[in-house]
Amino acid sequence: MTLKDLLNEYKFDPDFIYEGLKYDLSEQLKKLMEAKGITKKELAKKMGVSPSYISKIFGADNISLRTVAKVLAALEVDARIKLANPDKRARNLKIVSLKRGIEVKDESDSLALAG
User: How many alpha carbons fall within 13 Å on the CB side of residue 1?
Assistant: First the structure.
């Protein structure tokens, strides 16, 4: 069985989707921070939390949408979630900015955050 076969077999498995979303979210938040020139320490200060809490967020283990909203607010990103038609792309979740000038995209990832 090839890797492609395995990916097709599990692409609609909730655990597989969950792990992919955790990874994508963490990576895109890091890219937003880099684009805005904000360190984890500075983000922690803006959010009024400890740097170790920021590390937990970026570990993305059971992160809530409220926490994601707090991070995006601290980064001054006005974002929305858009789910794509699963027939076109599995696991295609996009958070798209409505107002900000910085756009962070990774063409290889299915999650895009824009700020």
Answer: 7
